[in-house]
């Protein structure tokens, strides 16, 4: 009994789900964006207040300067000569903004006397009540500036009046209380913040729902993965739509397919190994148990050792073939490289001739180069040749050849042994079907056992090599040789492909005749020729 790691449980308890992370990132981005919008809006509003204030002050100062230069006293019709009268007439004709003050100062006394508009200014402490502030503005040598007061900032500009002569001079002051306008900008900023907070709350709700719907297939992937076991890999995720989540589901399903095939191959490997190795192990154990160990059992011991050695060799071959089939799913099972087809076909033919005393023929040879795994192709072709030897008698014909096609290459082995029943054409490629889904009666002198043949793994290896090249293995029984005429040995009186009646020991060849013959003529065949079988490796050539 094992105990779970408390630290592991702690880490699992502190795990933040993808939905929460998405929501937190969304909130962070939205908060930064809305804060930036509100701050930028406030800055723009404050800048607008400053620009409007400066324009207002400049406009009022310009109007007063123009009035001083060209104004006329309505009583006399002559230019103004007295500052107080000038200021009074000008102020009576002006309409100030709500937070604007127009004030005149005449230096005819100490402190200077004031001339102002008879109206209430909607501020806490108007400038005309601040004698110290007005005195500071009057003494200031600048024509415009800012007065900082506890009640807020006051922007001002002034125009000096110098009538000349003995008349006292004066000053026209335009003051604007910008704090109220700035307060409006601050109110807009606060309103934007409140709206942003509401937007964030709505975004939280909508983001939570949307993230949940988007991540629902991911949770389904997780739940499916949690329910998968070695015994049940059949569950799949439904694919809906064409978005990234659908692509994830398709990828996960493809991974499950590969896992199911891998586990299936593993189980099949174990089952096959246990099934096939059980018999030779039983045979070895039985012979060893019955072996005579006495002084008179030398001959029996020698025979037992021979049988045991033969069975151990067979077990070794079975294990090697099973291991080879187990490597089929590995990416390095096939290592393609440019190969000369003529050289490859000739090498296969030379190696196949040593498998048995048959009438070997090199039917045709393809020219050019193909991208193939020469070692694996040779292995497959030799296995097909071994299969042909097993099902033919001494002296029967076996042909090996290769040809180019529009999309790739075909390499074939054709024999004249017993054919394969149509219902067994797929079964012959399955593992350990030797004897149950093989050919009919064997001819005299046919081989009874060979490498890979006795266990029924040879054709399975051939198919695996073909599929590793993205190809296939075609089986034709009772069909013409590739590139040659009909290889069927018909009974006497049967209608042949050439339209004639066959006689004993002859068969019309409708294709390429032997040297000195003509197409369609009758040529002698070997006694005992059967319908035969042709195994063809149909391979794709990436170079074509």
Quick recap of the structure?
The protein has 544 residues and is an alpha+beta fold.
What does it look like?
The structure is a single chain. The protein is of the alpha+beta class. The protein folds into three domains: about 20-185, Beta-Lactamase, CATH 3.30.450; about 245-325, Helix Hairpins (Orthogonal Bundle); about 335-490 and about 525-540, Heat Shock Protein 90 (2-Layer Sandwich). Helices cover about 45% and strands about 15% of the residues. It contains ten helices and 14 strands. The protein has helices at about 5-15, 20-70, 85-90, 130-140, 180-225, 245-290, 300-325, 340-350, 375-390, 460-470, and strands spanning about 100-105, 115, 145-150, 150-160, 170-175, 335-340, 360-365, 370, 395-405, 410-415, 470-475, 505-510, 520-525, 535-540. It has a five-stranded antiparallel β-sheet, sandwiched between helices. The protein has a five-stranded mixed β-sheet with strand order 7-9-10-14-11, covered by helices on one side. Strands 6-8 form a two-stranded antiparallel sheet. α8 (about 340-350) packs parallel to α9 and α9 (about 375-390) packs antiparallel against α10. The model is unreliable at about 1-10, about 440-455 and about 480-525 (pLDDT under 50).
SSE succession: HHHEEHEEEHHHEHEEHEEHEEEE
Oligomer: single chain
Radius of gyration: 53 Å
> What is the average of the pLDDT values?
76
Please report the distance between the alpha carbons of the first and last residues: 61 Å
Number of strand segments: 14
- CATH topology description of the largest domain: Heat Shock Protein 90
The helix/strand class is alpha+beta
The main sheet orders its strands as 2-1-5-4-3
Number of H/I helices? 10
Give the number of domains. Answer: 3
CATH architecture of the largest domain: 2-Layer Sandwich
Strand content: 15-25%
* Largest sheet entry: 5 strands, antiparallel
